[in-house]
Specification:
alpha/beta, Aminopeptidase, 10 helices, 7 strands, globular
Length: 360
C-alpha cells in the first residue's frame, strides 16, 4: 500500500458548521446549482486538470475603455487612455475578489461564496438575511474567483483550522521535506517551483509546485497567473481584494511597489475597515504603513501577486489576511466571526467605492 504523504491528521476542538464547505467539489457543485443571476466563466485549467472559475455580477462599461494598456497609458501621462475610472466615473465601480490562492487558507473562499449567495438569494452562506449588504453590492460590478488554486485546495486535508494548532497549518500549507521536517514560512519560498526534496507538497502550491503569490511575472510558470492577470487587465478594477489567511486578527497588508498615493489610500481604507470591525466588536491587527520599498542596507520586499495586480491594471489592490482560528494564538476566532469579518470587509469596500472623493 502506498504511504499517505500527508501523515496523521488532527481533530479540531471546534466542529465545522454545515455551511462551511470550501472543498473544490463542493464549490463547483454550488456554482453549477446555485448561480443564476451571475455569470460563471472558466478562466483556465489548473495543472491538475481542475477548472479555475470566476463569477461576475453587474454590467460592464466598455465605453470607458481606452486605447492603451495601463503601463502605456502612464507612459503617455494619460491614465484615462487605459480606463476612465475613479470616484463617480463608473456607474458601477469594479470590485474584483480573489480567494484561495493558497489551498490551506479556505476562509477567503467561504467569504467569496457568501457574497455570491447574498447576491443570489439575499442571505449569506450561513442562511442569515443580508438586505443592506446585498443592496450595496448590487451597486458594483463584481468579479469573484472563489478558488484560484484548486490543486492546492484539493490537496488540503482540512476544510477549516479553527481549534487546531498553527503548526499544523504550516505542515499542510507549506509542506514537508522527504524526512518529514517542515519547510515553514518563509522558508517554503526558498525553493520555487517546489520540487525535489518534498515529502508532502504543501497546499500553497499547484500541482506543478508553483506558488501563485510568487510566480515569475515576466514569464509565468502557471497558466493560472496568465489567466488572472488577463482578467485584471481586461477589467481594470477600481479595487482588488486578494483574500488570504494567517494567525492574527484580520489585517490589510501593505502593498509594495505602488505609488505613494495608492499606499496612502490603502492605509485610509484599512483605517476605515478597522473602525467598522470595531463597531462589530471584532479586533483588528496592524495598519499598512506608507514606507519606502527597500532602502539601502535592507533586503527589498518581494513583488508579490498583489503588487503585480497594480501593474496589470488594478487601481487599488490589497491583501486581506483573515484569522484562521488556531487554538494557540492570543485571540480566538470561531467560524461565525470569520464569516462576519468578511462581510464587514465587503461592506467597507462597497462604501469606499461608491463614495466620491468629497464624501471620503
Amino acid at each position: 500500500m502506498k504511504e499517505n504523504p500527508v501523515g496523521n491528521l488532527l481533530t479540531g476542538s471546534v466542529p465545522i458548521p454545515s455551511w462551511w464547505q470550501p472543498g473544490v467539489e463542493a464549490v463547483g457543485a454550488y456554482l453549477d446549482k446555485e448561480v443564476r443571476a451571475g455569470q460563471v466563466e472558466v478562466l483556465c485549467e489548473s495543472p491538475g486538470g481542475r477548472v479555475v472559475r470566476s463569477v461576475t455580477y453587474g454590467d460592464a462599461e466598455p465605453e470607458l475603455r481606452g486605447t492603451a494598456n495601463w503601463n502605456s497609458a502612464l507612459g503617455a501621462r494619460e491614465p484615462d487612455a487605459y480606463y476612465r475610472r475613479g470616484p463617480g466615473v463608473r456607474k458601477r465601480p469594479v470590485l474584483m475578489i480573489q480567494a484561495g490562492a493558497h489551498g490551506a487558507e479556505p476562509e477567503g473562499t467561504i467569504g467569496a461564496l457568501s457574497i455570491i449567495n447574498i447576491l443570489e438569494t439575499g442571505k449569506d452562506i450561513a442562511g442569515n438575511p443580508q438586505p443592506k449588504l446585498r443592496e450595496k453590492l448590487q451597486r458594483l460590478r463584481l468579479i469573484i474567483t472563489p478558488i484560484a488554486n484548486p490543486d492546492g485546495r484539493a490537496r488540503c486535508p482540512y476544510d477549516g483550522f479553527v481549534g487546531l494548532p498553527e503548526e499544523e497549518m504550516h505542515r499542510v500549507g507549506q509542506g514537508t521535506r522527504a524526512d518529514g521536517s517542515l519547510y515553514g514560512w518563509p522558508g517554503c519560498k526558498v525553493v520555487h517551483p517546489m520540487k525535489g526534496d518534498v515529502g508532502f507538497l504543501g497546499c500553497y502550491f499547484d500541482d506543478n509546485g508553483v506558488n501563485l503569490a510568487h510566480d515569475n511575472w515576466v514569464n509565468p510558470m502557471s497558466r493560472t497567473t496568465t489567466a488572472i492577470m488577463k482578467l485584471v487587465c481586461d477589467e481594470g478594477p477600481d479595487m482588488l481584494l486578494n483574500l488570504h489567511g494567517f494567525q492574527a486578527p484580520p489585517a490589510i497588508l501593505r502593498t509594495t511597489y505602488v505609488p505613494v498615493a495608492v499606499a496612502e489610500d490603502i492605509l485610509a481604507f484599512a483605517q476605515q475597515y478597522a473602525k467598522d470591525l470595531n463597531a462589530q466588536d471584532i479586533p483588528y491587527s496592524w495598519l499598512p504603513q506608507v514606507t519606502e520599498d527597500g532602502p539601502r542596507g535592507q533586503c527589498p520586499p518581494a513583488m508579490g501577486q498583489t503588487s503585480m495586480f497594480y501593474h496589470a491594471g488594478a487601481a487599488m489592490p490589497m491583501t486581506h489576511e483573515s484569522p484562521q482560528g488556531f487554538d494557540d494564538t492570543d485571540v480566538a476566532f470561531d467560524y461565525d466571526t470569520i464569516l462576519s469579518l468578511h462581510h464587514v470587509l465587503f461592506e467597507t469596500a462597497a462604501d469606499w467605492l461608491c463614495d466620491t472623493e468629497e464624501q471620503r
